[in-house]
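Researcher: Quick sanity check before group meeting.
Model: Go ahead. Protein one:
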Amino acid sequence: MIGRLTGRLDFRGPDHVLLDVNGVGYVVFCSDRTLAALPPVKSPVALWTELLVREDLLQLFGFLTVQEREWHRLLTSVQGIGARGSLAILGALGAEGVARAIALGDAAAVRAAPGVGPKIAQRVVNELQGKAPAMMLMEADDPLIDAPAAPTAHPAPTEKAAPVRTSSAQSEALSALANLGYAPTDAARAVAEAAGDADDTGGLIRAALRRLAPGE
């Protein structure tokens, strides 16, 4: 199993990159969002990876964070969602957006991904909603990019800083609500709903509590 690759970005294609690792070139397929966030060609970069093994096929898929890779694994466990479908969903929503959509039961958000129909989107929400709390509790990590972000041609790396902080606040808020005795699925939905009201832990907890106990 190849779980992570660190090397030099030699080529960026429409749906993949070529990563040179000690003279060996690995073709790694990525979502549109991940491709946009990568530094310029010839820069050092690292990606978490998932290896797809079939009788007639070996393909590597790359992700900037562990959360993104774990959501990929969960998404591809849903019947009708292959690796490319998972990348389409992650490219449209991002790992944090997927967590929010599934916690809220928002099949319409999942359906916004190219090639994902209403039945498949609803199936994703139905099958993964119970797993959203555990995913939201995963510790936020920084993207595995070792080079400075590209200046104006690739604005996405700058935009990723805030979601990382927000993800950490959401996981801390979810943990706090679980300690208060709220059911994981209820807490996850409340935190996801409150994400637009605050991006710090204290604010998220207060906003989520207003949704969980509106009369208090």
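Researcher: Fine. The other one?
Model: Protein two, sequence then structure:
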Amino acid sequence: MNFFESEIVQEEAKQLFADYQNLMKLGSDYGKFDREGKKMFIGNMEELMDRYKVFMKRFELSEDFQAKVTVEQLRTQLGQFGITPEQMFDQMNMTLEKMKAQLDQPSS
């Protein structure tokens, strides 16, 4: 079976995309959240990133030609911005770590 024909892959992709969209929509009000709301948002972002890493690892480990092409397309697209997928995840993690650190700083 083709990698993209798998119901599991399709469902996880659909769920990841929907969850990402919902978090981005919610994140537009991040500045209005109280401390606990910000912690919850950051936790949800971390969980989403972990799920995305697992999803991408499935692509990388697959023997399916289309999955391999997809990984290469992602690498090419990110390469146009001068980064690798690994650097993208590192940058996302750094951003979330900064957001966590800001939670413990008194507001001005």
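Researcher: One line on it for the slide.
Model: The two ends are 57 Å apart (CA to CA).
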